[in-house]
Amino acid sequence: MRQRTVIPFGPQHPVFPEPLQLKLHLEEERVIEAIPVLGYVHRGLEKLAEQKDFVQNVFLIERLCGICSFMHALCYCQGIESLIGLQVPDRARFLRTIWAELARLHSHHLWLGLLADALGFESLFMQVFRNREIIMDVIEATTGGRMIFCSCLIGGVRRDIPNDLLKETIARLDQAEKLLDQIAPVILAEYTVKERTANLGIVTKEQARKLGAVGPVARASGIAMDMRTLGYAAYGDLDFAPIVEEAGDCYARIVVRVKEMYQSFDLIKQAAKRMPKGEHALPIKRLLPDGETVVRVEQPRGELMYYIRANGSKKLERVRVRTPTYANIPPLLHMLTGAQLANVAAVAVLSIDPCISCVER
Amino acid sequence: MLEMLGNVIKNTLATPATRRFPAVQREPFPGTRGHIRMDSDCCIFCKRCEIHCPPDAIVVDRQDRTWILDPNRCIVCGKCVEVCPKDCITMFPHHRAVTRVRIREIRGEDDGRGRRLEPMATKEE
Amino acid sequence: MRELEAIEIGVDQLLGEAHLLAQDGWRLVTITCARSEDGCEVIYHFDKDLKLKHLRLQLALEQEVPSIMPIFFPAYLAENEAMNLYGLRVTGLNIDYGGRLFTTAEAPRHPMARPAGARGEE
Description:
Number of helices of chain B: 3
CATH topology of chain C: Beta Polymerase, domain 2
CATH class of chain B: Alpha Beta
Structural class of chain C: alpha/beta
Number of helices of chain C: 2
Order of helices and strands of chain B: HEHEEHEEE
Distance between the termini of chain C: 34 Å
CATH architecture of chain B: 2-Layer Sandwich
Strand order of the largest sheet of chain C: 1-4-3-2
Helix content of chain B: 10-25%
Oligomer: heterotrimer
């Protein structure tokens, strides 16, 4: 029997800013088994959400994750709105869609930059982050915050995007899209990237289904699962189809995400074109949530699920958050089994775009 | 080859995409949530900001006539700006440097006819 | 009051129901644990073609529940989480963190088992 070594990978690792620890059982250079060790950023937010009132919770929930903060607020607000029986104004629905897609864009840019950095492709990393800066500026100009938007409220959105600012936003995004046109072929056609990622960490369609993969991981394995097709916010009024790749390897996951970036640009333009006039928020005075509900939205990383239970008072009884990375950990462990140690950090872990602060809440 | 030449010329002539940070600073956008400031002249100490503040960063004392903000707890969400009945909390776009100092606004006694007996003060502690 | 359309089942029916759902191609979304008046309540969320189905289980205090990990592998994370935060007793887990998935040995043992503000947490 060959000798087994255990390498604690993380919680601090140069290519990986999140505090996830993986105990890698190695046989020579090959990973036999990977066991995740969680709990480095557990903050007890679900417990805290039971103590604050349901309006304050919007701000709390937004701080659950830095990258997809708007999606958390959106999902939570949709849940509360369905419990108090409130129909959001049309303009708010479209504004929410625009911000959700902006959040997806900056998240995918961040991920692409980190991946390039992990592959040792430093100049690409810089290019991607330069592009991301444009999107961050757009977000700051429209919401007032760069990471934490604070723009979603129960009953609508907190501030309107005036039409001239919307026009300017679209112009800035066109510029970003043009820059992406230069970057995307590099990452998709470059020989080194392909050599490093193709045929690596394969998850077949059957396995993805069994392991409960969500988001780009599932779509790269040929499962056309996209929560946006549920038609929440304004997605029901826009034209798009989930992006699906068949190969199921790391390269397919890159392709899916890059194509999703273009899709996001397209969706923002569609939403801006069809933006209805009217008010952007409804008052929620004297309305209290009662009952229980399950809400799902599509985050940059996949399906996000909230279970909310209220009892007719200001405080909620239970808020359960199931984030996409939580569902993508079993597929990750599957990908790691049999992988070479050198590929673990750079390719396998990053290809699920992990967000550990989401997992542990 | 020619394509590359184009890139080379472009890159030699182009200015850097970054800013020379401490010397050149970016102006925040007009609507940015940077920090809040309270104008104690018009505060009526109604405690609405304290009740609505999600991270409990504001403490208002009606007896002492003080309004204390802990900038370290404040998440600059702007909820207090929205709920203030007298509009005396304002949002400013510039960020405040990290601090552990609490900001205490004290409004002096008045004689009930709008005349101030003691001046108002802003203290940092 | 808007209730979730959940199928109420008993502990002995759980594995059988889960098996039927797995054969039918349902995917486990997650397991939610919540406090109820006498003990705790476990809700299993399943998804198929964007439709949801929920199984609800009422548990008395300290009642054991079998793990559905042999049928739905991803269940182990959620089950370990419920063991940690709620003190749920899950039997038959292959990957067992010993009720310490998120918290360390010095932390309160089951932080969410009691309502917020209640004293007497370990």
